[in-house]
Amino acid sequence: MEQLTTIGINHYLTISAILFALGLYAVMTRKNAIVVLMGVELILNAANINFLAFSHYNGGMEGVMFSLFVIVLAAAEAAVALAIIINIYKIFKSVDVSSIDSMKE
Amino acid sequence: MSNPTYTAIFYLFAAITVFSAAFVVFSRNVIYSAFSLLFTFFGIAALYVFLSADFIAVTQVVVYVGGILVLLLFGVMFTNNIMDTDLKTDVLHAIPGTFLFLGILAALLFTFYTTNGWMPSDTQLQGSVVERIGFETMSRYVLPFEMASILLLAALIGAAFLARYDNGGTNEH
Amino acid sequence: MFELPSGAEIQSIISILKSGLGFFIPEIYLSILFMGLIILDLALKGRNKSGILGWATLIGLGGSFYFIAQQHAMQAGEHFFGMYVLDEYAIFFKYFFVASGMFAVVATLADRKFDAEVKSIGEYYALVVAMVIGMVMMAAASDLLMIFLAMELVSLSAYILSGYFKRDARSSEAALKYLVYGAVSSGLMLYGFSLIYGMTAETNILKISMELADHGYDPLVMILATLLIMAGFGYKIGAFPFHFWSPDVYEGAPTPITAYLSVASKAAGFALLLRFFYIAVPHGVSPYEDILGIDWLTLLVIMSVASMIYGNVVAIWQKNVKRLLAYSSIAHAGYLLLGVIVMDEIGTQAVLFYLLSYFLMNYAAFYVVVLISNRTGSETLDDYRGLGSKMPLAGAALTVFLISLVGLPPTVGFIGKLMIFSALLSKGALYIWLALIGVLTSVISLYYYMLIPLNMFLRESLEPNEKSLNPGFLAQLMMAVLMILTIWFGLFFEPLSEFARYSSAMFGLSLY
Asked: Do A20 and A42 form a contact (C-beta atoms < 8 A)?
């Protein structure tokens, strides 16, 4: 009970582990490119929770700064990703990752 | 901290985060996924406040909810006709995916709960970090800051190029 | 509560930043070039715009050699509060990446497909330069945050560049695949970084290594973090379990970009891999090392062997030359990893030399592929039939480059492989088996590489017309020079190998 009522680092790590696994599941199983992208955002957020939790419990600023830059980067990546996906949609009329396969082995 | 209200609020936000994230992943409808992601981002922002990273929480709301999520919604609406019922995103390899999901989750949780390898400290981050972020950005993190500006510029011109509408190849003249 | 720093502290921060600036001139120059190209693109009007921009990029990149050369005189050390490190190793890669950026521009200027497909070329050259900046920073980063940002700058530019023919389905598909795999693997890497940060409370790789040495570490967390980080690095170098993107991306992307990705982006991955695993991660015998029986070295060995076998075997069935070279590049990542796991000065020297030789022969091979597809409009193996008589010089040059890629004497590729294998042999019994696998897979590679000259010289063209396809004087000159260089450095490799040995010195390295 002590474990549950006292919020410690493990609580945050558990949430981050769940988000990470969910994000990876979305990436592995979803065919829609936009949902894959959402999965990536979940993974990035899971990493950010880790950084901030570690930073909080070890008193350093590195994790806080790291997570700030990750957010910046996620925005840039989302912009580029959406541009590519919209371009794909113009050509293939689909954003289905598994059906976009014009090149053969 | 073992203040019951504090604990209850933490669990509330943790539940919002986890369940909405699960809904993002398991929902068959892209629009529902995108809106569910909104709650995930808000829940995570609340968790950041618990971690005394107030500035990051605000940035999370502004950038993720205000920027990335809007982009994603635009993407969904551009690439799907809303009136169409065909908003479903099909599941591929669901069974191996589920095993992988459970396996990774178990491995991570086992590692996190058995380890005592995290670097501990007596002094935790307390209070607001806004001033410290400002100071760090302009001292130790000047180089990453400049690097991020180049990255954003490159992403900006690249995304603008790709999404720009132009007809024809070389009929410029 | 946060105390505002005193005036003296602020003065000292300013002076540290100012002194760091002097060690950062090539990067500043490249950043100015990047922005200058965007402005030039907006300012220029008229018919010759793409040519002028290309030459401006070429000259601009060439100018940075002057600033890089001046860095040899500088003391190796960390700057900007441990974000950026200047050492011989970083300088080597600065030359390497600027030269590869220039070569990508040369190949672009030669590629006729750009005139037909692309309406606006300004962003292209700017992004090539942005990618050079990112790769230079990858080789010089000594902080996890800088590593992450630099890698993302390279990745984002590369996504856009590989999708630059935006009306072409294959190019757009290449961009999508590159993006999906890239975003996932960088996410995994980031999660690994967060675990490393949790263990050490540091993000600087030198401090991480000290922290891990002082306090020990939990091997389970360490192996988890290493696995995740390996996903990010493995994606960049295109090694076996993380190679899925590379055949499609290499086939679909514009050919100059394929060459650029296969040489420069891979080299940047190796620059990072070596620095990270040699400095940050603990090695040597420690009580923690052998739990689970796996450590990062074992992972690298598995990756290396799997890449060599997979790349070389799957390449046999390829019908498209660009795709064939993609699989061969997976195999070359495996050979390069062999040099990494030697973990001594000779190994690092061998890796750097191999990268130089790979630079020469792979770029040259792609250059000939560009010239041939200018004339025939195709990259399939069947369309190479009978080209030997129509483009004799191109045929001869491509044959030389492919012999070099196989690793036969008297070419530079032979010396590269020889150095890797001899570095392995000097380490003892287990490594002999690795060297043996390397030699055997090279023999397999002989078969598929030689299919190309076989088609060019010994098989008749499917549609016989005896029209000679002259690729133009400048292109012929370029091919001849590259051909001579490939053989010249195969015979007189001393300067290159000396340069590689000189460049194997990393700041803060206690491994050798």
From this structure: yes
Residues C382 and C324: beta-carbon distance below 8 Å: no
Q: Indicate which CATH number applies to the domain containing A18.
A: 1.10.287.3510
Chain B residues with CB under 8 Å of A67 CB are 53, 56
Per-residue pLDDT at B81: 60
Residue B151's domain comprises: 129-167
In a domain, B85, yes or no: yes
Domain boundary among B63, B89, B115: B89
Residues B82 and B9 reside in one and the same domain: yes
Pairing of strands C84-86, C77-79: antiparallel
> Is residue A100 included in any domain, yes or no?
no
Band of the pLDDT at C294, cuts 50, 70, 90? low
Measuring CA to CA, which residue among C223, C242, C220 is closest to residue C232? C242
Tell whether A101 lies on the interface with B, counting CB pairs under 8 A: no
* Residues in chain C closer than 8 A to B139 (CB atoms): 13, 17, 81
Helix axes C25-43, C122-140, angle to 10 degrees: 170
Measured CA to CA, the distance from residue B133 to residue C287 in angstroms comes to 39
Q: Is B173 on the interface with A (CB under 8 A)?
A: no
Query: Is the CB of C149 less than 8 angstroms away from the CB of B139?
Result: no
Q: Please, which contacts does C455-458 make with residues 24 or more away whose CB atoms are closer than 8 Å?
A: C455/C381, C455/C382, C455/C384, C455/C385, C455/C387, C456/C384, C456/C385, C456/C386, C456/C387, C456/C388, C456/C395, C456/C398, C456/C399, C457/C388, C457/C389, C457/C395, C457/C399
Domain identity same for B85 and B135: no
Q: Does B28 touch chain A (CB under 8 A)?
A: no
Find residues 207-266 of chain C whose CB sits inside 8 Å of chain A.
247-248, 251-252
Residue at B123 is within a domain? no
Please name the residues between 33 and 52 in chain B that touch chain A, using a CB distance below 8 Å: 33-34, 37, 40-41, 44, 47-48, 50-52
Residue A104 banded pLDDT, cuts 50, 70, 90: low
Q: Is C117 exposed, middle or buried (0-12, 13-18, 19+ CB in 10 A)?
A: middle
Judge whether C285 is closer than 8 Å to chain B, CB to CB: no
Q: Are B81 and B146 part of one and the same domain? A: no
pLDDT at position C287, please?
43
Q: What is the pTM of this model?
A: 0.94
Q: Where would I find the beta strands (DSSP E) of C68-124? A: 77-79, 84-86
Residues 32-51 of A with CB under 8 A from B: 32, 34-35, 37-39, 41-42, 45, 48-49
Residue A28 located in a structural domain: yes
Mutate to test the interface with C, among A32, A42, A66, A71 (most CBs of C within 10 A): A66
Domain span at residue A54 reads 2-92
Residue, of B38 and B116, whose pLDDT is higher: B38
Q: Encode pLDDT of B77-136 as tens digits.
A: 887 765 554 545 566 677 888 888 899 999 999 988 888 778 777 777 777 888 889 988
Tell me which of B150, B156, B165, B167 to substitute to probe the interface with C (most C C-beta atoms closer than 10 Å): B150
Q: Is C201 close to B119, i.e. CB distance below 8 A?
A: yes
Say yes or no: A40 contacts chain C, CB-CB below 8 A: yes
Cα torsion for C15, C17, C19, C21, to the nearest 10°? -150
The total domain count for chain B is 2
| Cβ–Cβ < 8 Å for B114, A12 | no
B78 and B151 fall within a common domain: no
Q: Cβ distance C276 to C147 under 8 Å?
A: yes
Q: Amino acid identity, residue B105?
A: L
Say if residue B3 is in the same domain as residue B82: yes
Looking up tokens 């618990």 gives B50
